[in-house]
Amino acid sequence: MPRTRLSAIFYLLLVFASGILVGVVSTRLYAVKASVPASTAPRTMAELRTSYMSEMRKQIPGVNDEQAAAVAKILDDTKKKFDDIRREERPQRDHIQQEQIDAIRAVLTDAQRPAYDAWRAERQGHQHARPVTRPFCLPLPHFPSCCLSGFPQLRPLKLQPAFSTRSSEEI
Question: What mean pLDDT comes out for the span 103-126?
Answer without folding.
Answer: 92
